[in-house]
Amino acid sequence: MAKEVVLREGEVDISHIVPINRQSFADKFRAYCKKPGSFTVFLLTILATLIAAAMVIWILVYVFIQGIPNLNAGLFSWRWTTENMSLLPSLINTLIIAAISLVIAGVIGIFAAIFMVEYAKSTNIFVKIVRVAAETLSGIPSIVYGIFGLMVFVNLFGWGNTLLGGAFTMALMMLPLIMRTTEEALLAVPDSFREGSFALGAGKLRTIFRIILPAAVPGIVSGVILGLGRVVGETMALIFTAGSAYNRPFASGPMQQGSTLTVYLYSLCTENTHPGVAWAVAVVLIILVVIINGLAEFIGNKLKKEY
Question: What is the rounded CA–CA span in Å between residue 167 and residue 234?
Answer without folding.
Answer: 11
